[in-house]
Amino acid sequence: MEEPREESEPLLSRARGGSGRPAGSAGSRGVRVGPGAASRQDLCFDQAAVFIEDAIQYRSINHRMDARSMWLYRLYYSNTCQWMLSLTIFLILLLAFIETPSSLTSTADVRFRSAPWDPPCGLTESVEALCLLVFVADVSVKSYLVGWAQFRKNPWLLAYLAVLVVSFADWIVSLSLLCQEPLRIRRLFRPFFLMQNSSMMKKTLKCIRSSLPEMASVVLLLALHLCVFTMLGMLLFTGEKQDDGQDRERLTYFRNLPEALTSLLVLLTTANNPDVMTPAYSKNRAYAFFFIVFTLIGSLFLMNLLTAIIYNQFRGYLMKSFQTSLFRRRLGARAAYEVLSSMSRRGEAHPRGVGVDPQDFLQVLQRVQLDSHQKPVIMEKVRSYGGDLLSAEEFQKLFNEFDKRVIKERPPRPEYRSPFLRSAQFLFSHRYFDYLGNLIALGNLVSISVFLVFDADVLPGDRDDFVLGILNCVFILYYVLELLLKAFALGLRGYLSYSSNVFDGLLTVVLLVLEISTLAVYRFPHPGWKPEMLGLLSLWDMARLVNMFIVFRFLRIIPSMKLMALVASTILDLIKNMRAFGGILVVVYYVFAILGISLFRGVVVAPGNGSLAPDNSSAPCGSFEQLEYWANNFDDFAAALITLWNVMVVNNWQVFLDAYRRFSGPWSKMYFVLWWLVSSVIWVNLFLALILENFLHKWDRRAHLQSLAGDPDTCCQVTVDLLFRDILEEPTEEELLERLSCHPHLRLCR
What is stated as this protein's family in its record (predicted)? Predict the structure, then answer.
């Protein structure tokens, strides 16, 4: 395909210094003559705007830069298109709950579950086809924007195309077999659409892949540890009599090699401790040393060593991620700088030197998609340079402003002429008035808790809610009065500008509506007053339930407590950085749930219908049947997710191993052990490593936050990226220019 003329024309004339302002450059005003120069200027402005948007969003700049491609690029990354793509991914993942086997039943218990809804053939397939067509358009646009040469080198785009081909082929097979095929291969590939759309998930997978050799070495040690102690256990527990403790140990836990291996594997997670030790320990206390030594080496040494290895691999994971993001930002900013400064080099020499004219940059900012509250701050910062050209260093420093969240200015408070009203305004807008409200809310919670304790042993029909009803009316009246007084002091717009006030106000309005409805239905509280239940909950019970949300008022005291504020901010930052890890967990859950449905669907049968245990009374104590674990099955997608969650927690997971061994065969243990390794060992340790990394860096640099933020009354708030900015390594000018010179769709002439 022939490159457009605008794209093939050299835009970047030569390498230039980053911090100084060498003389002898052309003035930017010299190019603004003639229609050709105007069109080139407009193209440069668009290219600079796209580069700036790439820098803000930490995106790669290696895409086509002609006018038509930039229009398509900005359309693709618009909020509407990205929202539609996210919705499509959500829909195709959601299909697993609806398509056969459907999860649309009230319970997953095989004893009480009704026949699930079976969607007609072609219904979910039609929705799936629409989703796949959206993904075809997605990969087509991405392939066009990066170019064919880059497409062939991108493994994710190649895998994207392969997954779509396999999915469409399997979809055609489904329709040709009237949706009666035993296995839908394409369901296993659906999580790929989620992964390929997240750069952070791709980075996380890369880090996991780099950690696999070290983790494999510890897993090998664990396997060797299990094998050695399994052999020792089978040699030790060789009882001679039926009533002998050794024999009971052998028959229960060391009957054969697979049983012994399973028993010790479960002991590695301490889920069956001390049950596995009790029969032999009851016979001779010396046997306890076998299990203690096994647990010390396996659980306390090797498992924690695995945690240390994973943490060591992911130590600096956030820093590496921020380092990559910083390089992309600097590269995008430098590309925008080169494009804008190249305009001046086409004209006559300008006495002010080489750089970007602030007026040009302001025009570019008008085209950049920025937050409406952030753009004025950036533009004001640019105007502060006056008429001086911006050097590369100054241009880069402007991008630090994009890291700051703009704090909206509060609307002005009402002005009252009366001294009494001004005094009341000062009183009701003071923070001590908030403290009083929190104290009243605490009294409300204490009263509810006290009456819950007193009424715990009283039957619902014998309770007297007279005192509690009066107290509830008093508290709600105070909340209404507090709302009105704050609205008077701050003004309606000022009151609504605080998210805490919005929460309090909505809660107060809901409580007021429920209280008025309660009084209208049950009349005013009186001795012996007990509202009757109408449906699931009475209006009175609903009011008490909603009243419990008052507890969230106390979250606002967290910023005033430094240590608690540090922990809370760490949790919030962790949630932001956990999106990639959470996405990986969703992918793993989805794949294992689909595999579980294919392997174990229908193997759990209700008692009396061919189940291995006819009823709970005849089942051994602690077994799947006796514990009534009937809802833990793989008969539909939702049930499979809950079953996998219960196994991941590893509490009583030996029950699942034993039950599915009896229901479907000994090979089923491989599925559950693999799930335990992936979820409970790898992912949980990964999560722990991220918590440690985040908290330790936040703890070490808690004092640095104030210095970065500056004056607390300023209009900006520092984000997580800027918090770590001082310990990141700034890319050199040579690295940036070298990377720019390799841009596949721009030519940097030196």
Answer: Belongs to the calcium channel alpha-1 subunit (TC 1.A.1.11) family. Two pore calcium channel subfamily.
